[in-house]
Amino acid sequence: MIYPGEIIDNTYQVCNEIGAGGMGVIYLAIHLRLNKYVVLKKLKNANATLSMLRNEVDVLKSLRHTYLPQVYDFIEHNGDLYTIIDYIEGYDLKYYLDHGIEVTESQLIKWLKQLCEVLSYLHRHQPRILHLDIKPANVIIQTNGDVCLIDFGISMLGNDLLKGISYDYSSPEQYYNACCIDGGQYDALVELDERTDIYSLGATFYEMITRLKPSCLAALQPCLECAQMPVSEPLAKIIDTAVSYDREGRYADALKLHRAIDGMFKLSQKYRQYLTIQIVCSAAACLLIFLGCYLIYSGISNQLKSSFEADYNAYLAAMNRFDTETAVTQAKKLINDAGYRSMMDGDTTAEVYHGLGDVYYEKGDFQNAADCYEKAVQSVTESKNGDIYYRDYAISLIARERYQEAKEVLAQLSARYPDSPAGHLISAHLAFREGDLPKARELAQTALAQGGDSNTRYTAYLLIGDIEADVGDLDAAAVAYQKAISARETALALRKRGSVLMKRGALEHFSSSYDEALATYRTIYDAYMPTDEDVFNLAQCYLLCSDPNGAKKCIEVLEDYVKREPESCRSYILLSIAADSVDDSRAAEYCRKAHSLYVQMPEEERAGIDKESIRQIKTVYKRYLKEEW
What we know:
CATH topology of one domain: Transferase(Phosphotransferase), domain 1
Oligomer: single chain
Helix content: 55-70%
CATH class of one domain: Mainly Alpha
Number of helices: 27
CATH superfamily of one domain: Transferase(Phosphotransferase) domain 1
Largest sheet: 6 strands, antiparallel
CATH architecture of one domain: Orthogonal Bundle
Low-confidence stretches: none
């Protein structure tokens, strides 16, 4: 047993126990380095060896699906074994049942289809993964309304015959196996397959509809289709099929169940009657219908093509003018529209995903960046940029400290693009993260020596700048970042160069460094979407540069900013200092506002304001308001 406050593996601090079941005890914990909640699941599997469990967890760690939690780690503690899994916010379906929460048929259909998608992913995985414990308590409805299938525990890979069962939701064959094992009849066990999960999924939704638990012991389950339940006849028929006592009568796999849901309206009696009438009536007019359909299809096809070209060109234009918000909106429209997807080949799809990944990466959102880069890698066919997609996917994984996965991507890249400098750049990033700076610098220089396009030069020089900044050579870092900007100007490269120039100015007290930094941040301000920190850095540079009108320009920038963010204490501190330097009559007003906002700030936010600015505002405040700050 572990206790609240206990730190496991020097990484996970336990908050409290949040559950227990047939597969183990579950604890909520905080990942101390990442400052995020995770779940520690204590494993109960007396029949499995340590190496078997480790191999199975390694398989689970490789899973990537929107409706599955991420498995991060496998650790031992005081003789017990734990898996580390994403903490998913939301309520499980058992909570919905226990609290009598009404759910519409459209919601049920949405969740059922999403669970079909994730089961299809698990069942098609190599090795095949069976969940074998689908029930309301293991289906969480996330805060965004989507499902998450949890507790896909240990000993469910390949052709395993049994793990723990939930009698109300387990299939008849699972129950039969449990009875055989209890009686010692191991030679009579039934091999489980996809249809076992189909039964449990159907049983879960059977209860969601009826509020009654089905029984796997009943060869004739109470028929939903005959019971006049508050759902449509087709949905009732689908659930009845899923919970068939005879597994030959169930859907063979999750994909077939998903297709049945997509075409469920065709199962209704009214539809079948209507279809018969339509066939008879349309026989005489089939030629006209054919011609009409052809004309309609041609018109729709041309309209869809025009719409796609307009939206695709809008996406490219937004990327070229660095309008990231519009670019993200257009990229998602291209990716999510089924009609558009049918018009994009693999390379075009990869290009859109990669561009979206670049936007997320520059924002520091490495999770979404990695997801988009991975989809670009999966989509690309013959594009000349394929090695870049692999490279950026690996680098985004490295940024998330997922080094082993990055090395696997590196191996895939080396096999597919053996002569690409991208492999050296991935290795350079790995060496940098491992603290081997000379090796990282050497590998980046090797990539540059191999030639490559502007994208390769950009990535290499950006890393070299990071290396030089890390060892404190700010001049060399600024030069490297400038070369990266020359190869491919991005807000990220400009931001990195501006930061080292400001550090150099603070150390050397040269206004020329602030002049250079000012030009860099002004470019971000004018051409990109500046962050709050970009605005504050631009204002600081105006205050410290050699421009005699710098303070007035600082005030202009910050006055424009506080129109959008009127409660920004840091803005009013800088405004007070700038106004004081040019004897602006508004200095007292700025001081009063800055102090009012400061006293309301939480302590952790105050710590984000640099000490020099605090020292200066206290002096200015006393001068204008005749009292201590």
